[in-house]
């Protein structure tokens, strides 16, 4: 059970980092648009980070339900 807590804590930390990065990227995109600059690279990065964040939320949810979120594992 302790290792489960450690894994959940690690996932929570990664989620916090990703959420912070998403916020930074959104602010950067807004600033670039305001300046009239091309924000396409920042938008692509935001999409990738958002996708990773979504995956982290799924892993966290699965771990809380007691199912390890490996690709071969079936949730249900």
- Rg over CA atoms: 16 Å
- Straight-line distance between termini: 21 Å
Q: Count the domains.
A: 1
Fraction of residues in H or I helices: over 70%
Work out the helix count: 2
Biggest sheet layout? none
Class computed from helices, strands and strand pairing: mainly alpha
Query: What is the tally of beta strands?
Result: 0
Q: Which percent band covers the strand fraction?
A: under 5%
Unreliable runs:
none
Global outline: elongated
Q: N-to-C SSE series?
A: HH
Which whole number gives the mean pLDDT? 87
Question: Care to describe what's here?
Answer:
The chain has about 80 residues and is mainly α. It has one domain (about 1-65). The protein is about 80% helix and about 0% strand. Helix 1 packs antiparallel against helix 2. It is elongated. About 5% of the residues are buried. The model has no long low-confidence stretch (mean pLDDT about 85).
């Amino acid at each position: 059970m302790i290792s489960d807590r450690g894994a959940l804590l690690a996932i929570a930390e990664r989620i916090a980092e990703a959420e912070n990065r998403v916020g930074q990227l959104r602010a950067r995109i807004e600033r670039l648009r305001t300046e009239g600059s091309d924000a396409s690279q920042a938008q692509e990065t935001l999409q990738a980070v958002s996708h990773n964040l979504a995956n982290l939320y799924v892993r966290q949810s699965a771990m809380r339900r007691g199912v390890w979120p490996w690709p071969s594992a079936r949730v249900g």
